[in-house]
Write a structure and sequence with these properties.
Number of domains: 2
Distance between the termini: 96 Å
Strand content: 25-35%
Largest sheet: 9 strands, mixed
Radius of gyration: 27 Å
Structural class: alpha/beta
Length: 411
C-alpha cells in the first residue's frame, strides 16, 4: 500500500514538472538592446534617417514625433556588438532615433536597423523637448508609456530647453548620459534649484487630475548639460506654457518647503557686500484664509542656518548686532524673491504649480469643491502674504551663536 501511494504521488507530480522550468521565457542580455533613457521631440529627422530615406528606406507616415532610445553598448555590459568587451575609449552607449506618427511603430522600426530588439524594462530617464510639449498635450504621447508594461513606472521625467535627444549626446562622458542626469537629482541636498523627482507614476496622477505642475528643466551648452530652472505644464491644456529660471525655481522650493539644503545669496545693505546663508533646516507652511468670497493665503517660513561666506570686513562673528543684521537681510531676501516669483506664476502663467490648491482642499474642503473646476483662475487672483523667520545658528567654522529675527507682518 505504501509503495502504491508513492507511485501515485509521483504520477500526480509529473504534469507539474514542466511548469517548474523558471527559464522557459528567458531572453539573453546579449540579445537585447537595454534602454537607459528615452528622449521625445517634435518631429525632426536625424542625418542618419534622412540618408536612409533618400536611399529607399522611407515608409508611409506623418512626421509628428521623434523618439530616441539610448541603449548600452557592449563596453557597458549591455552589448551592442557581438564579441563583448570593447576598448575603454569606446562610447558606453548608442542612440537610435526614429521619426514618425506613432511611438510604438517607430520603436518597432528600430528592429530594422539593429540585430537586437529594444528592451525598456530598465530605462531610468525620460526627457521631453520643449517644442513638442508646447504644441502637443502631454497625455497624447504618453499613452504608450502607460499602456505597455515594459516601460518602467519609476523612471524620472524631465523637460529639455531645446532638443531632448541632444541631452543624450556628451562627448568624452565616462557615464551614460541618461544615468548621469538621474544621479544629478541626488544633489538636491546641496541646492534649492533642484526639484523633487517626478516619476512616470506621479506624472500620470497630474495628467488624470488635470493639475498644473513643474518639471526639472535641462539645458545643453557645448558638451555639458545643466539643470536650468523648471518647465510649467498647465493642467487643463497639458502643454508647456513657459519656464521658471534658476532663481525662480529656488523661490518655488522655498514656498513649497521641499528643501533638503542649499544656499541663499543676499546683500549686507550697510556695506553693499555679498554674503551667503546656508540652510541647515527648513520648514514652510501654506495656510489658506477664507472670508466670505475672498480667498487668500499665508506662506510662513522658518529657517535655521549658518553664514557660510561673508565679504563684510571688520565684523566679529560673535557680534549680536552683526548676526541680527544678517538674519534680517536673509529674511528680506527670501520674502522679496518669493513675491517676485509668485507674481510671475499667478499673473503671467496663471497655473498653481505650488500646491496651494492642495492645502485649500485639506483645510477647506467645501470651498475647494466650489472652486476646483476653475482653480488656476482663482489662484491667479488670490492674495498671498509671505513671512520669513530666520535663525543664524553658526558663523561657519568660527563659532556658534543663535539670534532669531522675524520680519513684522505685512500691513
Amino acid at each position: 500500500m505504501k509503495r502504491r501511494n508513492v507511485t501515485l504521488g509521483i504520477l500526480a507530480l509529473l504534469p507539474v514538472i514542466p511548469l517548474l522550468a523558471g527559464c522557459w521565457s528567458q531572453r539573453e542580455i546579449d540579445d537585447l538592446s537595454l534602454v537607459a533613457g528615452i528622449a521625445l521631440d517634435k518631429a525632426q529627422e536625424t542625418k542618419v534617417e534622412t540618408a536612409l530615406n533618400k536611399n529607399g528606406a522611407a515608409r508611409k507616415k506623418d512626421d509628428l514625433i521623434s523618439i530616441t532610445y539610448q541603449v548600452f553598448t557592449s563596453s557597458s555590459g549591455g552589448g551592442q556588438g557581438r564579441g563583448g568587451g570593447g576598448s575603454s575609449e569606446q562610447k558606453r552607449y548608442q542612440n537610435f532615433t526614429e521619426t514618425g506618427d506613432l511611438l510604438l511603430e517607430s520603436t518597432r522600426e528600430i528592429s530594422l536597423r539593429t540585430e537586437r530588439p529594444i528592451f525598456a524594462q530598465h530605462f531610468k530617464t525620460l526627457v521631453v523637448g520643449d517644442e513638442l510639449l508646447r504644441t502637443t498635450p502631454f497625455r497624447n504621447f504618453m499613452d504608450l508609456m502607460y499602456r505597455e508594461s515594459e516601460f518602467r513606472p519609476s523612471a524620472l521625467v524631465f523637460v529639455a530647453r531645446g532638443l531632448a535627444r541632444e541631452t543624450f549626446e556628451q562627448k568624452g562622458a565616462k557615464e551614460i548620459p541618461a544615468f548621469r542626469i538621474l544621479k544629478m537629482v541626488d544633489n538636491q541636498y546641496k541646492s534649492t534649484r533642484i526639484l523633487p523627482s517626478v516619476t512616470l507614476t506621479k506624472l500620470l496622477t497630474y495628467l488624470q487630475s488635470k493639475s498644473s505642475f513643474l518639471l526639472q528643466a535641462i539645458v545643453k551648452g557645448g558638451e555639458e548639460i545643466k539643470f536650468a530652472g523648471a518647465g510649467i505644464v498647465q493642467g487643463q491644456s497639458g502643454k508647456l506654457v513657459g519656464f521658471l529660471d534658476e532663481d525662480e525655481l529656488s523661490s518655488v522650493t522655498l514656498i513649497t518647503g521641499k528643501v533638503r539644503g542649499g544656499t541663499v545669496k543676499f546683500t549686507d545693505e550697510e556695506t553693499g557686500q555679498k554674503n551667503l546663508y546656508e540652510i541647515l533646516s527648513y520648514k514652510s507652511d501654506i495656510v489658506p484664509r477664507v472670508e466670505g468670497d475672498n480667498l487668500s493665503f499665508e506662506v510662513r517660513i522658518e529657517s535655521r542656518g549658518r553664514l557660510s561666506e561673508s565679504w563684510v570686513m571688520g565684523e566679529k562673528s560673535f557680534n549680536d548686532r552683526f548676526l541680527k543684521r544678517q538674519g534680517e537681510y536673509v529674511a528680506k531676501q527670501m520674502e522679496r524673491s518669493i513675491r517676485q516669483t509668485l507674481e510671475k506664476i499667478q499673473k503671467q502663467y496663471k497655473a498653481d504649480v505650488l500646491g496651494f490648491g492642495k492645502e485649500l482642499r485639506i483645510h477647506e474642503p467645501k470651498v475647494w469643491d466650489k472652486v476646483k473646476s476653475q482653480w488656476d483662475q482663482r489662484f491667479s487672483q488670490a492674495e498671498v502674504r509671505v513671512q520669513a523667520k530666520t535663525i543664524v545658528a553658526e558663523f561657519g567654522a568660527s563659532g556658534s551663536k543663535i539670534v532669531e529675527h522675524q520680519n513684522p507682518p505685512e500691513p
